[in-house]
Amino acid sequence: MNQERMYQILLAPHVSEKGTLMADANNQHVFKVAQDASRTEVKQAVEEIFKVKVDKVRILNVKGKNKRFGNRLGKRSGMRKAYVTLKPGNDIDFAGTH
């Protein structure tokens, strides 16, 4: 897989309270990924970009919520998330301490 495709697959880390607890307890990290990304592509991208070893990847689709904007109805766009479990001894540091 080329470098450009790897950065198209991993869009951003998904920062949430649940994700932070999972990172501390289970060595799992949550990423927003492209709609057409597969498990093997996500695994390769995380291993190459962050130089870690991935144990397993779980992917799920989050549906967009229906929202009301004043008198109009709207719909937020959905997203695809990947829960990446790292092998023991590996860690990703998003804080980026210099």
Short description:
The protein has 98 residues and is α+β, with helices and mostly antiparallel strands.
Q: How would you portray this structure in words?
A:
The chain is α+β, with helices and mostly antiparallel strands. Helix content is 30%, strand content 36%. The protein has three helices and six strands. The chain has helices at 3-9, 17-26, 39-50, and strands at 10-13, 28-33, 54-62, 66-69, 72-75, 79-86. Strands 1-2-6-3 form a four-stranded antiparallel β-sheet. The protein has a two-stranded antiparallel sheet with strand order 4-5. Strand 4 (66-69) and strand 5 (72-75) form a beta hairpin. The longest helix has 12 residues, at 39-50. The radius of gyration is 15 Å and the shape is globular. The mean pLDDT is 93.
Largest sheet report? 4 strands, antiparallel
Helical content, roughly? 25-40%
Any idea what the CATH superfamily is called?
Answer: RRM (RNA recognition motif) domain
Query: Helical region count?
Result: 3
Number of domains: 1
Overall shape: globular
The poorly predicted ranges are none
Examine the coordinates and then state which fold CATH places here, giving the name of the CATH topology. Alpha-Beta Plaits
CATH class: Alpha Beta
Overall structural class, as computed from helix and strand content, comes to alpha+beta
Order of secondary-structure elements: HEHEHEEEE
CATH second-level architecture: 2-Layer Sandwich
Number of strands: 6
Please report the distance between the alpha carbons of the first and last residues: 29 Å
Strand order of the largest sheet: 1-2-6-3
Our Rg estimate from Cα atoms comes to 15 Å
Strand content: 35-45%
- Mean pLDDT rating: 93
